[in-house]
Amino acid sequence: ASEFTCELCPYEMRPDTNRTGCVPISIIKLEWHSPWAVVPVFISMLGIIATSFVIVTFVRYNDTPIVRASGREMSYVLLTGIFLCYAITFLMIATPDVGVCSLRRIFLGLGMCFSYAALLTKTNRIHRIFEQGKKSVTAPR
């Protein structure tokens, strides 16, 4: 190359300050002791504890009318999605490699998918119940 032509830097490299050569891109990642990691881990731990408490409560009182009325199966799917969304925090802070990055992509999407699918299904169910109620109830005279 000369001063009149440009060449792209290879993968994982970037131009130096005066753009005469290429230097490796340094990897910047979160450290476990950083405040940017400690706060999300703390919040995630609280969320995991709270979600686990709700799951245990649901399992313990599985056959009560309130748990049955809330839609047991959909509630379990929703709680699983919420649990996965909290648990993904630890993978986001972990040192990136092929396995960790693969698990990040899988579990983040899976957690969101579980949560949204359960919410949409519950909302649809409630909507259908109210629509059915409008049709079957006769108006007072």
From TrEMBL:
Q: Does the keyword Membrane apply?
A: yes
Keyword Phosphoprotein applies: no
Q: Which InterPro entries match?
A: GPCR_3, GPCR_3_9-Cys_sf, GPCR_3_C, mGluR
Compartment list: Membrane
Instruction: Give TM regions.
Output: 36-56, 76-96, 102-120
Q: Which residues form the G-protein coupled receptors family 3 profile domain?
A: 36-141
Q: Which Pfam families match?
A: 7tm_3
Keywords attached to this entry: Glycoprotein, Membrane, Receptor, Transmembrane, Transmembrane helix
**Bilayer topology:** Multi-pass membrane protein
The protein's name: Metabotropic glutamate receptor 8
Q: Which organism is it from?
A: Xenoophorus captivus
UniProt gene name = GRM8_6
